[in-house]
Amino acid sequence: MSDYVADSKPVNPAPLQTGPAKSLRWKLKIGFAVVLLLLLGISAWGYYASREPAVFDPLARAKARAEAANQQLVPGYLTTATLIELTDTLLNKPGGYLSNDQMPPGVLLDNMPNFEFGMVQQLRDLSLALRNDFSRSQTQSQDDSDLAEAQPLYASPNDRWIIPSTEGQYGKGQDFITRYLNRLADPEQPKAQFYTRADNLENYLRLVEKQLGSLSQRLSASVAQQRQNTDLANDPNAQQSTATGPIIAIRTPWTKIDDNFYEARGAAFALLHLMKAIEVDFAPVLRTKNAEASLKQIMRELEETQGPIWSPIILNGGGFGFFANHSLVMANYISRASAQVSDLRQLLQRG
To answer: What is d(CA 351, CA 345) in angstroms, rounded to the nearest whole number?
Structure first.
């Protein structure tokens, strides 16, 4: 019997990778690793830049500034120094100023820019009050030269990145405020004044009340609402440009929910420090008007707005629904602070 050998084809070994193919695979791996590291770096930087600044003690900061410059804490020193400190916080907090960033990763963030805008609104109002009220003894008096330069700079657009940039404008405004502060603390510079009068403080609080009222309304509109039109209430002869119905339907677009929330949080952050400064500078006035408790309650409500946020996103649950509504919680604190500001204004108006 003869041996039988099956006809079989030889198995070809796996082709060896040529030089160009092997090089391409390594390039793809390196490119993927670079993209991954870039994404991780952007995420880490975004987390760092989104950290909100810590609440500080305005009195301690002002004392340190005064001691370093061999100055006295004259009336108005603390309020003016707090404006300078808040400007420094705005521009030099973790990640710097983000509202005018045009490139990633800053342009991808929106919570912190809205927080910054809330702060900017309060700095603008105080710089205006400094120029028009606190530094002037009467309506016919001349405004301070440094404050006249600073106030328009704080009114500059908050998102300008080309020259002159927003940071540059606010920085120049801070420099003029610092010059005013140095003159204020110098007994040989009598032209620089800060008048801690009840009417001056009442005028400033009027601006604060309007800002808080606007924030409260926008936060409350996170859920659909039907509101009675009160635009012409309490004045039988009042008119408006365009007629509106007796009922107004309001709802904040869902894309603006977190924007309004963080703007309110930034505004409350700045106001908290300014109210602490006013408590010291206007202590005699507040004591005379028996208004100290009202100011303390304002600060208490503003402190509550700075509590930690445990949710990774701002929730927008409806009414008594299953999910929380962070906007309504914030609106509660803001509206209560606004009501206390109104009460404080009435106390200051009384003789």
So the answer is: 12
Say which residue the tokens 């859920």 belong to: 223
The answer to whether 307 touches 219, Cβ cutoff 8 Å, is no
Tens-digit pLDDT string for the chain (351 aa): 455 445 555 555 555 555 677 777 887 878 888 888 887 877 777 777 788 999 999 999 999 999 999 999 999 999 999 999 999 999 999 889 999 988 777 777 889 999 999 999 999 999 999 999 999 987 778 889 999 999 999 999 999 998 899 999 999 999 999 999 999 999 999 999 999 999 999 999 999 999 999 999 999 888 766 566 666 666 676 777 776 766 665 667 777 789 999 999 999 999 999 999 999 999 999 999 999 999 999 999 999 999 998 888 888 877 677 778 899 999 999 999 999 999 999 999 985
Q: Are the C-beta atoms of 263 and 117 separated by less than 8 Å?
A: yes
Hey, how many other C-beta atoms are within 10 angstroms of the C-beta on 49?
18
Nearest CA to 60 out of 276, 254, 249 is that of 276
The structure tokens listed for 98 are: 């983000």
Q: CA–CA separation, 102 vs 108, rounded Å?
A: 9
Integer Rg of the chain from CA: 29
* Single pTM value for the model: 0.87
In terms of residues, how long is the chain?
Answer: 351
